[in-house]
Every structure is written in C-alpha cells, then in structure tokens.
Write a structure and sequence with these properties.
- The chain is mostly beta strands.
- The protein is built from four helices and 45 strands.
- The longest helix is centred in the N-terminal third of the chain and has 17 residues.
Length: 829
C-alpha cells in the first residue's frame, strides 16, 4: 500500500530555490517588521458634539504650522477618540471636520520627541454645512478590516501597474493562488468571484482568461468576505471575493483614458476608456477595454508508474486578443423608485501552441531512453460571454427596501485543436509510429435567474428576507477525429455530448441587532432545493450510460456575535454552513488530452461538498486585526493525479470527492506608519490542512501540511511629488488539490509614480517578480504514480502605465449586485 506522505526518490530531482535569496528576503521582512515598533510622538483626544455625545468617524487632520503641509489624517473611532501616531517633534495645527458642524481647529500644538499629548475633549460648535461642500481628502489604508469583510484597496497602488486581477489576488490578504490559478481563502477552496456584486459566470481557463483581461487600472478595491450571511447564495465554501471597479460621485460628466504596456520575455498591452453622466433623473455609464497579450507557460514533470520512468516537458505559448465592455442606465422615478438595466460583454480570441515532449525509459535505468513522444499541439479558441440585468429598487421609510433582479447570461466557447502524436527512437531521428488527432469541443451555457429581497428595521434591529430561482442549461460537445492518410474521420467511440440541466429554488431570512452597548448579534437561515440531470450521450450505443439525477434539499444556518470588550478592543464570533456544487466543466467526462500520455477528464458522479466554518476575530485599536478559523468539509471536491487504468504509460488528472478535509487557519494584519514619508502594511496567513480519503484497493489519501504566506508593502514619499513603493510576498510549502505537495515561492516588486496637470495625469513605472521566484515546484504520490514537477511563466516584467481623468471627477454610478450570482462561477473552462 502506497502512502501519500511518502515523497519518493523523485523529490531530489526538484530544482532548489536560492538559499541566499531566501535568506535575504527573510532578513528584509524581519528588519521591516522590527522597525514597525519604533515610535515617536503622538497626539490623541476625543471629539464630542454640542450635546456631549461622541462624534464617530469624523476626519482629523494635522498640519505643520510652519508651511501648512498636511502631516497626518485619521478618523475617530466608535467612542469619538482619535490618535495621530509616529509624529516628529515640532509645532502643528489640528483641524477636525464633520458633516453638520463647523470645522474645529486647535492651534499651537507643540510636541517634543517621544511625547504623548492628550488633548482630552474637543467639542464641535453647532452650525450648518452643506454636504456637497464637505470634502476631506486622504489616502486610504491599503487594507481595511470591517465587521463583515476585509477590503484590499488597489487604486493608487503603484506596483499594481501592468498587473491583472489574478496577480492582484496573489497579493490580497488571506488569499492564495496556486500553480493552476485556483484561488483559496484562509486555506479553503471553493471561493466565489464577483465583479461589482455580480458573480463571474466562469471557471477554469475561461475564468483565468477573464481575470487576466481585467487590468489593475480598472479596479478600485477587492472585498474578501470569508463568512457570508444567509442573504448570499450558499455556494462557495471559502466565501466571496468581490472585485469592485472604479467609480466616482455627484452630478455632471466625467471620464478617463488609460493605457499600459509591459515587457517580460513577451509583450503585453491594454487600454480602456470610461464615461459617466448623471443628473437628477438619469445615470448612464459605459466602459470599454481591450488587450493584446502574448504569454508562455512552461511545465516539467519527472514521473514513475508501472515500472516506467517518464521525463515530460511542456512549452506552451499563446496570443490572446480581447474586448470587455459594460453599459448601464438607471432611471430615478421620484425619491423612492429606481429602474435600471445593465449589460456586460466579454470577447476573447486566441491562438495557442503547446510542445509536449515525453521521454520513456525503464524505471530501474532511467537514462536508457526507449522512445520519445513528441506532441506538437496547435489550436484556436473563441469565447463570447454576455449578461443582461433588469433591476427595480424601492426605498421606503424606516429603512424599508425592496429589490428585484431578473438576469440572463449566455456563454459560448469554441475550441479547435490539432494534436499529432509522433513516437521517435531515443535519438529522435527515426519515426516509429504516428497518430494524428483533431478536436472540436464547443460549449453553450445559458443561465436564467430571478431574485427578490426585502429589508426593514424591526424591533431595534435589521430584518431581511428573500427568494431566488435559477436555471442552468449546459450543452457540451466533444468531437474526436483521427487523421488517417490525410483524411479526417470522426472517431465515434471517443466522441459524445454531455448535457446538464439544473434548477435551484432558494429562500432565506436574516436578522441582526445590538443586544446592549457591548454585544450585538446576527443570525440567518437559508434553504436551497436542487434538481439536476446530467445526460451523457455516446455516439456508439454500447457506450451509453444512464443519466445522473440529483434531487436534494439543504439548510444553511449562520450566526455571528460581536463583543466590544473595550473602547479599542473588539471580538467577533461567526459560524456558517455552506455548499460547493461541482463546476459544470468538471462534471463533463470527456478526455481533454495534452498528448496520448497526459490528459484530464471530468467526473459526472461528483457529490456537492458541504463545509462548516467557524471564525474568531479580534481587532485592536481599529488597526491591528487577527482571525482564527476552523473548517470541516465533507465530500471535498479536489483534483487527483493518477495512472491510467488501460495504458500503463499514461497518467491523467481527474476530480474526486475526498471523505473529509480539516483546515485550521490564522491571519494577522497591521498597517504601520514609520514616519511622515514612509508607510507600511504587513499581512501574515497560516493554515494547517488534513486531507483524508480511502477509495479501496489500497488507494488512499492521507496528507497533512502546514503552510504560510507573508505579504508586505512599503510606500515612500520623495521630493518633487514622486511616490515609490516596494512590495513582496513569500509563500511557504503546502498542498494543491488532494496530494500535490508544493515548495516555497516568492516575489519582490518595486514601483515609482508621479502626477501631472493638477493630478489629472498619473504616470507609473513598475517592475514585478524581480528575482523570478514566483513559479512552483512540488511532488505528488498517489495510486502508484510518483511525480515531481515545476512550472514557470512570464512573471518578471517591467510596466509603464498612463491614466488621464477628465470632466467632473465626482460623477457617481449606482453600484448594485444582480441575481446572476451563484450559478455564474460554475461555467466550465
């Protein structure tokens, strides 16, 4: 019996990371973290209104008296207390601003080195102030931790220049992206991806292509919701990541133009334009973006199975051209009624080539090559995705609201590939055999949803209830062709269709309210009835199978408790039960092969996975945040790499249910201001994972792993308006899928920014993955297959970005989610 914890003798074949570089980076992190504890002077106080009540979330600004230069901006906490830390000795002027009151000023504040000055109570005088005139400008914190989510503020981050959404997610706190671009949160798989409150209708290659087309210049922030309430669909074990695009506020017209070009080994370029118009009756907005990207991906594997040693190399290149666009209009029908429509589109075409070379030799004599398989793949693809939303919203008195969404999404993919499989002798000079295959694999998916939500203030709290119906129709065709003597003939034994029809009915209620001054709670319950049929239709009658029928009702409770321990200490406790249904593409049993000896296939018999999540959070001084989590997942859906049952030389990746997965996770984050011109942010995540499964006949999964990741960002203000940035991440060893144990990886980025023409034009220059260490290496041992491998892509790049804003930069587009959410993530790639 083969235990998956054994790495085998292939581990020594993996390339080692540079010890010097790892030591240097670790030392850098330690020095920067240690310097965070260096303190200088500080000022604190409490703001009160004319009646003596605490003023919450007022803006407090500190200026240098000598030259009126802004030194520091903070907001008051829930007790009206503010603290301005890390100040140099000197004389300052303090200004506090709050809507509805005249500005409060305190002059001649003198600080000595290391002094802590308490201004005690500062009281606003009563007075009127127009909302439109109350403007406070301050730089947002890189990361904000709120009661229901963690916010990663992307806009203005210099090192995001030239990056796409996938690269930004690698930087986000508590988020990891593995070697196959699978996204985990707090060590948990099954996260849902949203854009502006609307779930992305994609997975697999389609999801990766879309996220790569979404440039950092378009993104305002990323919201990470690890334990969503009952209002959200129960889909997604790890919670929700919501990518929020840029917007503005107020009446008038505005727009922006941006362009980025970057160079690694290959060129990538993108551009976008946006326009907004709003008055009292209508708000219309549009955005269009395009990109041309050349990419490469290299993967190498050394494997043993059935007494055979395989040395496999893959060299993949692609050129992708794409457009994405967004158009919407809202009509304001009086003060309480709003009707709107929203259209999103994404078109992508690509040409790709993949050279697969596999040398075969006996396991006992790995240098004695028997034969070499050369599979020189080429193909073209096209992806067209469109979503339509019709929305009605009513806002009544006493906090009442009613929202209705009707959605339709259509997703089409064409993919045609040519794959010659040629076997040569050991010297690659004599052609032994040749098998040429062609593939035509179109996919059509249509999603219909209808959702209604009601909220109101009730008995000192907030009550919500709603219902949703969704229907998904997925048609997948897999046509396999043999080219024989120049003639293409369809192979009916390997060709088939797979149709999947799913309907989900859901209803929920939620309630939250404070218990007293220190305690508050939230609770909810969601029910989802799933009816689905998967039908595999073979072109040969003897290969036909009975349809897979699913019919089940699931209940999903959630609860939360918040304790205000003290003025600057908050504890929170959260529990939620969630489900993760298989993506449509992983249910599809077709063989998607890279060569005759390496392929991937789906599993139509997968069960949905159920997870119970428990989280404890602690916030200190509204700045330092800690979270401890535990999750127990049954029927965990995961990837496994194993040997083919028919061809002793072949191996494949498939999807299976693990019996159980346990994860214990920890996350800590802290913003630090070292000086007036130097700000830092640090985030640390760690998790312990335990995967268990027994498939019989000695085929088991018994894997435990501890992994961690560190992210830091330093921002520097230089003379003449220049701003610099240094950021980087370090990821420790861990487990991808069920059994693939990967090694450490890391990246270090730098950037420089300057604004011109009264801040209308922003120019950014950045370099990413300077030491080219963000690739992956690892070992997999499962069911008689031992495999060691690694991968690299075009991650070391230099980027130049220009962004120009025009018009009234306060035009605001109404932000709203749509009903096309839970189903969207599962569209196949």
């Amino acid at each position: 019996m083969l235990n998956c914890n054994e790495a085998g003798n292939l581990e020594s074949l993996l390339p080692d990371n540079s010890t010097v570089m790892k030591t240097t980076l670790a030392t850098l992190f330690i020095l920067l973290t240690f310097s965070a504890f260096t303190q200088t002077a500080q000022v604190q106080g409490q703001l009160q209104d004319p009646d003596g009540e605490a003023v919450v979330f007022a803006n407090v600004a500190l200026y240098n008296t000598a030259d009126s230069v802004l030194v520091k901006v903070e907001t008051t906490d829930e007790s009206g207390v503010f603290r301005l830390r890390n100040l140099a000795a000197g004389t300052y002027r303090l200004t506090a601003t709050y809507v509805g009151a005249e500005d409060l000023e305190r002059n001649d504040i003198t600080l000595a080195a290391g002094q802590s000055l308490d201004l005690e109570v500062l009281q606003f005088a009563s007075g009127a102030i127009e909302l439109a005139e109350a403007t406070v400008t301050a730089q947002r914190a890189l990361v904000e931790v709120k009661p229901d989510r963690t916010v990663f503020n992307v806009e203005g981050t210099i090192n995001s220049v030239g990056q796409d959404a996938i690269a930004l997610l690698r930087m986000a706190p508590g988020v990891t992206v593995d070697n196959n671009n699978n996204i985990n949160v707090l060590g948990r798989a099954g996260v849902l991806l949203f854009v502006d409150g609307k779930q992305l209708p994609l997975t697999g290659d389609d999801l990766v292509n879309y996220l790569q087309s979404l440039r950092a210049e378009q993104i305002d922030r990323i919201d990470i919701i690890t334990n969503p309430g009952s209002k959200y669909d129960a889909e997604g074990n790890a919670g929700i990541i919501d990518i929020r695009l840029k917007r503005n506020d107020n009446y008038g017209v505005n727009g922006s133009l941006s362009g980025t070009t970057s160079r690694g080994q290959l060129w990538q370029s993108n551009g976008s334009a946006s326009l907004n118009y709003r008055n009292k009756l209508i708000n219309t907005f549009a955005r269009v973006g395009g990109q041309v990207n050349d990419r490469f991906d290299n993967m190498d594997f050394l494997s043993t199975q059935n007494g055979i040693f395989l040395n496999e190399r893959n060299r993949m290149t692609s050129t992708n051209e794409g457009m994405n666009y967004r158009l919407g209009t809202d009509f304001f029908l009086g003060e309480r009624h709003t009707v709107g429509f929203l259209f999103n589109g994404n078109n992508n075409t690509g040409e790709n080539a993949a050279l697969n070379r596999t040398a075969l030799s006996p396991q006992e004599n790995q240098t004695a090559v028997d034969s070499v398989l050369i599979s020189d793949n080429s193909g073209i693809s096209a992806r067209d995705n469109y979503t339509f939303n019709l929305n009605y919203r009513w806002a009544g008195e006493a906090g009442k609201s009613f929202n209705v969404d009707a959605d339709y999404g259509t997703y089409r993919r064409e993919n045609i590939r040519n794959q010659p499989n040629r076997y040569f002798d050991a010297n690659e000079e004599v052609l032994l055999t040749e098998i040429i295959n062609e593939f035509d694999t179109p996919t059509e998916i249509d999603i219909y949803t209808f959702r209604a939500d009601y909220e109101a203030d009730w008995k000192g709290g907030r009550f919500g209830a709603g219902a949703k119906m969704s229907k998904v129709v997925s048609d997948n065709t897999f046509l396999f062709f043999d080219r024989i003597n120049g003639v293409v003939v369809r192979n009916d034994r390997n060709s088939n269709t797979f149709d999947y029809d799913e309907t989900v009915y859901a209803g929920y209620f939620s309630y939250n309210r404070p218990i007293n001054e220190k305690w508050s709670f939230s609770a909810g319950l969601r029910a989802e009835q799933t009816d689905a049929v998967g039908q595999l239709t073979a072109f040969v009658d003897s290969l036909r199978e009975d349809p897979v029928v699913l019919d089940y009702l699931q209940w999903f409770p959630n609860a939360g408790l918040t304790w205000q321990v003290g003025p600057t200490h908050v504890l929170s406790f959260n529990y939620g039960r969630r489900i993760n249904r298989p993506d449509y593409n992983v249910l599809n049993p077709f063989n998607n092969q890279l060569s005759e000896l390496s392929y991937e296939k789906g599993n139509p018999f997968l069960s949905p996975e159920i997870v119970n999540n428990f989280e404890v959070g602690y916030t200190l001084k509204y700045m330092y945040n800690f979270k401890l989590g535990y999750s127990l997942t049954t029927d965990q859906i995961t990837r496994l790499i194993g040997p083919d049952a028919v061809d002793p030389r072949a191996n494949f990746i498939t999807w299976e249910n693990l019996a159980e997965q346990k994860i214990i996770s920890f996350n800590a984050s802290a913003p630090v201001q070292f000086s007036e011109k130097w700000n830092g942010y640090f985030n640390f995540s760690a998790s312990y994972l335990d995967n268990q499964a027994d498939y019989g006949d000695g085929v088991i999964v018994d894997v435990q792993a501890f992994t961690y990741s560190i992210y830091q960002q330093q921002t520097f203000k230089f003379p003449y308006g220049f701003q610099g940035e240094m950021s980087g991440w370090f990821s420790g060893p861990g487990v991808w899928g069920g059994v693939f144990e990967y090694e450490t990886s890391w990246s270090l980025d730098i950037g420089l920014q300057k604004k011109f023409f009264q801040d209308a034009l922003t120019v950014r220059l950045s370099g990413s993955d300077l030491f080219y260490e963000s690739g992956w290496d690892g070992v997999s041992v499962f069911n008689g297959l031992e495999s060691a491998g690694g991968g690299r892509w075009d991650s070391r790049r230099a980027s130049l970005s220009l962004n120009y804003k025009f018009g009234n930069q306060k035009v605001k587009s109404r932000r709203r989610s749509t009903g096309l959410e839970d189903e969207a993530k599962r569209v196949g790639g």
